[in-house]
Amino acid sequence: MNKILVLIPYYNNIEGLLKSLKSIDADENLDVLIVDDGSTIKLQKELIAGSFKANGKILYKISEKNEGIESALNHGLKIAKSQQYEYIARLDCGDVCLGKRFQIQSQFLEKNPEIKIVGSNVLAVDCNDNFLYAINLPLNHEDIEKKMYFNSMLIHPAVMFCSSILDTIGYYPTQYKSAEDYAFFFAILKKHRIANLQEYLTQIEINEKGISLQRRQQQVKSRIQIIKDNFYFGWYPIYGLFRNYVLLVLPYRIILKIKKIKKNA
């Protein structure tokens, strides 16, 4: 049995799913769990099997109705735990693995048992795979812990974590809409050590027109609440709250321009 389970939530994006599966290196040893969150565009299992070249199998969890990504992810975690996978990795439809990403991350966790979740630096592209910017994150636990109050210092589809942490922190919180990963990472920070790898191991797709104002505002509002729920009187939480209140009122197109200028400077 493989030690690694790659968890991919799916909702009406078959092209993105196939793209992500094709990017997994053929020499990787892992299984993939696709959680269909009540899609109307049904999974095409023959196409999926033909796109997956790694050494492992594909599992499916299909929900009859759309429950939201938080529920889809938690369905996946429960299956991973019941099947006793040692490591759980994340990937989103349309995002691409670079090199032997999962082998690199699992070897890092094995060599550093005090670290329970590891991410990496990430490349961001548009829907046509045109480069937008690089995301360079703090690498060590102490820096991640401080800067987590600004924004998530782990990119969700680029992480791998030990399944054993589910015994201490539970599953993804469902009360923080569109920011379940941010809350999940804060919960991990309280009890475990975190790291990022300097390599670019994942390429994420940014749909500049795909983030609705309502969803973005919901995400920022949830981030503000998470910061408040983890607040202490210090510079990082205070600045983090100020920064996110500013983001709440800025149009997304301006934020994206700032990111491009900052990341490519």
From TrEMBL:
<feature type="transmembrane region" description="Helical">
    <location>
        <begin position="233"/>
        <end position="255"/>
    </location>
</feature>
<keyword id="KW-0472">Membrane</keyword>
<dbReference type="Pfam" id="PF00535">
    <property type="entry name" value="Glycos_transf_2"/>
</dbReference>
<dbReference type="InterPro" id="IPR050834">
    <property type="entry name" value="Glycosyltransf_2"/>
</dbReference>
<feature type="domain" description="Glycosyltransferase 2-like">
    <location>
        <begin position="6"/>
        <end position="162"/>
    </location>
</feature>
<protein>
    <recommendedName>
        <fullName>Glycosyltransferase 2-like domain-containing protein</fullName>
    </recommendedName>
</protein>
<keyword id="KW-0812">Transmembrane</keyword>
<dbReference type="InterPro" id="IPR001173">
    <property type="entry name" value="Glyco_trans_2-like"/>
</dbReference>
<comment type="similarity">
    <text>Belongs to the glycosyltransferase 2 family.</text>
</comment>
<keyword id="KW-1133">Transmembrane helix</keyword>
<keyword id="KW-0808">Transferase</keyword>
<dbReference type="GO" id="GO:0016757">
    <property type="term" value="F:glycosyltransferase activity"/>
</dbReference>
<keyword id="KW-0328">Glycosyltransferase</keyword>
<dbReference type="InterPro" id="IPR029044">
    <property type="entry name" value="Nucleotide-diphossugar_trans"/>
</dbReference>
